[in-house]
Design a protein that fits this description.
41% of the residues lie in helices and 11% in strands. The protein contains 19 helices and 15 strands. The strands form 4 sheets. It has an 8-stranded parallel β-sheet with strand order 4-13-12-11-10-7-6-5. A 3-stranded antiparallel β-sheet has the order 1-14-15. The chain has a two-stranded antiparallel ribbon with strand order 2-3. The longest helix is centred in the N-terminal third of the chain and has 36 residues, at 7-42. It is globular.
Length: 522
């Protein structure tokens, strides 16, 4: 079969392979024996490994593989958390501008909490449809902002995200004509790369606008505001998965560049304070908003996860005492199940109201205290599919923002490694080898496609309900399934509050909002 002159060479190769295989086998046996002895006699921390040496190590290996097997083989399309395969697949197809039609019926479970929109027999015809109109934020500012899109990019810091991820989001935001929030990590050159609108977030550590002691530096604040692309400033009180705790950036992610942008030591974990140091009540909050707005000349608002609503009542009453111009120009309400790269499970699972309750609560308080036309409401929290964005608009949000939806558009596969600097898609890692897989020029187009296709389908839902554009959706256009399988109109669950109702009713402000709501229902 082989030429005779190659036979000696082939025999030699086989002999060497046999020898190599035996050497490898011996090496594996020696390593296994050493691990067996170490597990059995020396280590005392792991009971499984001490009682079942060597074999017990496979537990950790299979435990690690379990995440991937569940995602790709065992979990059904609607079973995974925090986002299931059906939700992610919709984003992937929208980001690639592929058709999002499906066949043979819906796989969505008919269970409590599901929102159903009420189509009408006379839907809005395509020729009568209207694009969602721009909306002004901050009419009392020197430089108000006219926002064009209802669906924008939520706060994600450079540091938590990689350089190519921020570049792709920046360029994609410009292409989609939506805004991009910097997150609390400061303004990097990559946020400005695409030329799109930027919202600068002032976190509890004041990264990018802090002095040496962590206080707000007006000169740095004015320098940030001097960028024409920076349109608004957002003071973060609390965020999604960890209300009551500041941002966490592992030491492995604090590079020299990130340390310079944030104003922090290189190679040390960056943990923000769990609250704004000089904001303790409604008056100090309004003072901070006024100060930032005066220094920057641009719309200034707050971001929060809502727990108790009493502080909001205090805030709105204080606004009436000072005058409407003192109000925050917007309030971003984040859900208690919002996303983050690193958070304690106790906060992630069990602290803060979910958006399904906090959004209508905030809208009702704003309207009830007569601030409907003064304060814009921005909804945040797992809004990655058209139905949830349409729900938020119908409940009363003026805008919606998403972080994880746009991460999926970048190629995120929900590997759950955001806090380990090992993200396999290059989205949340500073490892150059892994970042190489994320090409900003390619992914920016996907960001824009995702935005455009989502807005288009929200408009489709609105037209099905008989209105010409999404902001005409109201609570009576949707119903929510209850635990007994029956649906309840949203305007029954959360009756619409007339503008100024809480001011005119004469009810004491100390009475909890929930009690007032229950009284109105009865």
């Amino acid at each position: 079969m082989f030429p005779e002159r190659l036979q000696p060479w082939l025999s030699s190769m086989i002999a060497w392979l046999e020898l190599g295989f035996l050497a490898l086998l011996m090496l594996l046996i020696l390593v296994a024996l050493a691990l067996w002895v170490q597990d059995r006699f020396f280590q005392k921390a792991h009971a499984i490994r001490r009682n079942f040496p060597l074999i017990g190590r496979f537990r950790y290996f299979f435990e690690h593989l379990g995440e991937f097997f569940r995602q790709y083989f065992f979990a059904m399309d609607r079973e995974e958390l925090p986002f299931n395969r059906a939700q992610r697949s919709w984003v992937y197809r929208a980001a690639k501008n592929l058709g999002n039609t499906s066949a043979f019926g819906s796989t969505k479970q008919i269970g409590a909490g599901r929102v159903i929109f009420m189509n009408c027999p006379y839907p809005t015809l395509e020729k009568n449809a209207a694009k969602t109109l721009p909306l002004m934020i901050g009419p009392h500012c020197d430089q108000p902002y006219v926002a064009h899109s209802i669906f924008n990019i939520s706060g994600m810091s450079y540091g938590a995200l990689s350089r190519p991820a921020v570049q792709a989001l920046s360029k994609g935001a410009s292409m989609a004509n939506c805004w991009m929030n910097t997150g609390e990590g400061g303004l990097s050159p990559y946020h400005l790369d695409g030329g799109g609108d930027v919202v600068f977030q002032i976190g509890t550590a004041r990264y990018g606008v802090r002095d040496g002691e962590g206080n707000l530096d007006d000169e740095k604040l004015a320098n940030i505001a001097a960028h024409s692309q920076v349109k608004m400033f957002e003071i973060k009180l609390s965020q999604g998965a960890k209300p009551g705790k500041g941002g966490i950036l592992p030491a492995a992610k604090v590079t020299e560049e990130i340390g310079r942008i944030r104003g922090i030591p290189v190679g040390e974990s960056s943990i923000s304070p769990n609250g704004q140091p000089d904001i303790q009540d409604a008056d100090s909050l309004l003072n901070m908003i006024s100060h930032v707005r005066k220094v920057t000349g641009k719309p200034t608002g707050i971001k929060c996860v809502i727990g108790s609503a009493r502080w909001l009542e205090d805030l709105f009453l204080a606004i009436h005492e000072r005058g409407h111009e003192s109000a925050p120009d917007f309030i971003t309400v984040d859900s208690g199940d919002g996303g983050t790269g690193a958070a304690p499970m106790s906060l992630m699972d069990d602290v803060g109201l979910y958006l399904a309750e906090s959004l209508p609560l905030l809208v009702d308080l704003r309207d009830g205290y007569g601030l409907t036309d003064r304060i814009r409401i921005i909804a945040s929290g797992k809004l990655i599919n058209p139905s949830m964005v349409a729900w938020a608009i119908a409940v009363g949000a003026d805008f919606c923002v998403s972080a994880r939806g746009y991460m999926f558009a970048l190629g995120c596969i929900q590997a759950l490694q955001c806090n380990r600097n090992t993200c396999p898609t290059g989205v949340t890692t500073h490892n150059p080898r892994l970042q190489r897989g994320l090409v900003p020029e390619e992914k920016s187009q996907r960001v824009a496609y995702f935005h455009d296709n989502l807005v288009k389908e929200v408009e489709t839902i609105a037209h099905s309900c008989g209105v010409s554009e999404p902001r005409e959706l109201r609570r009576h256009h949707a119903r929510m399934l209850s635990s007994n399988g029956e649906s309840i109109p949203l305007d029954y669950l959360w009756p619409q509050v007339a503008t100024g109702e809480y001011l005119a009713s004469g009810r004491p402000s100390e009475q909890p909002t929930l009690v007032r709501w229950q009284a109105r229902k009865s």
